[in-house]
Sequence to fold (353 residues):
Amino acid sequence: MCHQIHGLVTLVAVELTVIYLASGLPQSLLSPECQQTCGDVGIPYPFEITAGCGLPEYVLNCTSGSTLSLTINSTQMEVLEISAGALIVHVQGLKANSCADAVGGVSIGSSAPYAISGGNRFYVTGCNASGSFTTDYAEEVGSCHTICYLNQSSSPFCEASGCCTVNIPSGSRRLSLQSQASANSAVGCGYASVIYPPSYNATHQSVTKGGIQLLWAITGGTCADATTLPGYACSASATCVDVEDVPGYICECNKHGYAGDGYFHGSGCLDINECAELAANRCSPDADCINTLGSYTCHCLEGFNGDGYVDGSGCVARKAKFSQTILLGLFSLSLSLSLSLSLSLSLSLSHFT
Fold:
């Protein structure tokens, strides 16, 4: 009985694999019980909101089925987007108001697998307002000052009567923001904050609704170190990419003919079945498409000659060539008979004369 059950399980596994590969693109290998979306945000491995579906360091919360959040050092951040090696998060209170002498900021801490991206911009907006920031690196200090009724930056989020921006150093774990009050209180309050510009351009058409970018990585050393450890997260066909600013690494499926998230316990890197869809291959209509690991080949059907590719010699029916050969042969035979008949007639006439 045990052997029969094992055989049945193996058969089912093989059948599932065949169905899986025939679909063309790889799907997630995670359990169906793993929730993979929250609202309109996808939750890729190693992130999880269901225990056991990712890694413990990347736990997220999904509130009311629509709001995804990440908590770092007791600070809750709304997650707007997750991509390979990066998160876009909205941090409440990441603003320093000059009138209130308020200090804003964000702190990640050294143990979390995240760091502040250099793709973010520190900005100050208001009339004759100034602001500055400090990071966990004492020497890293940035500041700028606005001028009334003059837009000093072409950044899309700098459309106020005065706005200036400076770069944020990549890899910071802490940002502290300050904004100084204008010398003329009649012009109103200024404030300083941080934003990831593409998050404003895409869907969040307000500075207060924009986000900042955090880098994330699998911690545990560089790729060279991680590949020797038992907890190495990348699948066999994936490429390991170092993320120096976290530090750590991420896994990617960037080899031609493979797709997936690159993680051994995620969807991995599986062969794309280019033959499953006509648009995915360059085979001639008169050729068989044969899928191979990472690629495919085209072979002309019986009765056709050629390399099988639409951008190559394609597949040409042999009967067309055969017909041409027959016609050429008949023409040659006819010409030969005509010459022979003419020669015979000439000989006969010469004989009578």
Remarks:
- Helices lie at 2-22, 197-202, 223-226, 318-352.
- The chain is about 20% helix and 30% strand.
